[in-house]
Design brief:
about 65% helix, 18 helices, elongated
């Protein structure tokens, strides 16, 4: 059975979480108390951290103000209060604290405690980015990439992603790879794309591992190497990446890069199918319909075709799944069809948790 591999994943906008950051402090006199608060926070004793940090924040210690803002934003040791979080972020940000500037930008970006204001988000991201904060540089790049609050500008997006990538930000490295692969803001260059995918993949970024696998599979920017393709697909698949699981399944299904192994193909198709991957669901339907790697089971096949048809966005793919389902239905009884339809309904309703 021949199944087509996925080659590029859809670019996803990263939503950064507000995090506690231990910054370098000026003045040894406050280093001890601040670190005591950090130790308390890290062991889950948020009330002690709050008790230690609040006096420091009231004294104008920017790092304590920033972390106090995080506690209010996340509801750690205090009721969640975005207005209070913003107050403390602003105090620290006005002192030039890059972490607080990043977090204040996030609050405006995500509409938490303030009306959504992309211009304000951009302003604070830029202040942090100009200080070298990689997360702010990434967010600034994303706003230019998406045209959020500013005209879409791939060249500016590339500039800021590159700054973050040069600091080792794996997602920025991945985004650079995608932009080189698609020729967005730069001339299309598969070799550069592969280089940046490799940097991100080596850090364990699953999306980059998937695309690096696709590059090795097709010989784009690197010599074709099916063993390498399988290696990188497996790394991404082991992290739960559904597209990589599907691609790995197709390689075993077709005997490409490894001896044909239908049981192994079914295993990887099922993992992806259980995440709602329509191609994997259709592939699983094929395996049950033909009895490859599993006992032949028309009810199961019909169920997976039904699920795939409901998930496919591409009209041609959806029509193919519908046609396969209709062909299979001619060999089934009305009772079997009803059973398959009910199983598909239960599977979808349970978010693919009850699909057996």
């Amino acid at each position: 059975m021949t199944t087509q591999l996925l080659t590029l994943s859809t670019i996803m906008k990263r939503l950064l979480l507000i995090v506690i950051t231990a910054l370098i402090l000026n003045g040894m006199a406050i280093a001890g108390p601040f670190e005591d608060g950090l130790a308390a926070f890290n062991r889950g004793d948020h009330k002690t951290a709050l008790r230690i940090w609040r006096p420091l924040a009231d004294q104008g210690v920017a790092d304590a103000q920033m972390n106090l803002g995080v506690m209010y934003a996340k509801g750690h040791g205090v009721p969640q209060d975005y207005a209070e979080a913003i107050k403390w972020f602003r105090k620290a940000a006005d002192q030039g604290n890059a972490g607080a500037q990043l977090n204040l930008g996030l609050m405006y970006d995500k509409r938490e405690g303030v009306p959504q204001d992309y211009a304000e988000a951009m302003k604070w991201y830029r202040k942090a980015a100009d200080q070298g904060n990689a997360s702010a540089q990434f967010n600034l790049g994303t706003m230019y990439f998406n045209g959020t609050g500013v005209p879409q500008d791939f060249t500016e997006a590339m500039k800021w992603y590159r700054k973050a990538a040069d600091q080792g930000d794996a997602e920025a490295q991945y985004r650079l790879g995608v932009m080189y692969a698609k020729g967005q803001g730069v001339p299309q260059d598969d070799k550069q794309a592969a280089l940046w995918f490799r940097k991100a993949a080596d850090q364990g970024y699953a999306g980059a591992q998937l695309l690096l696998g696709a590059f090795y599979y097709g010989g784009s920017g690197v010599p074709q190497d099916l063993a390498e393709a399988m290696k990188w697909y497996r790394k991404a698949a082991d992290q739960g990446n559904a597209s990589a699981q599907y691609n790995l399944g197709t390689m075993y299904d077709n005997g490409v890069g490894a001896p044909r192994d239908y049981a192994e193909a079914v295993k990887w198709y099922r993992m992806a199918a259980d995440q709602g991957d329509a191609k994997a669901q259709s592939g699983l339907g094929d395996m049950y319909a033909e009895g490859l790697g599993v006992p032949q089971d028309y009810v199961q096949a019909h169920k997976w075709y039904n699920l795939a048809a409901s998930r496919f966005k591409d009209t041609k793919d959806r029509e193919t799944a519908v046609k396969k389902r209709a062909t299979l239905a001619k060999r089934m009884t009305a009772q079997q069809i009803a059973q398959a339809q009910e199983m598909a309904r239960q599977c979808a309703a349970s978010n693919y948790k009850q699909c057996d």
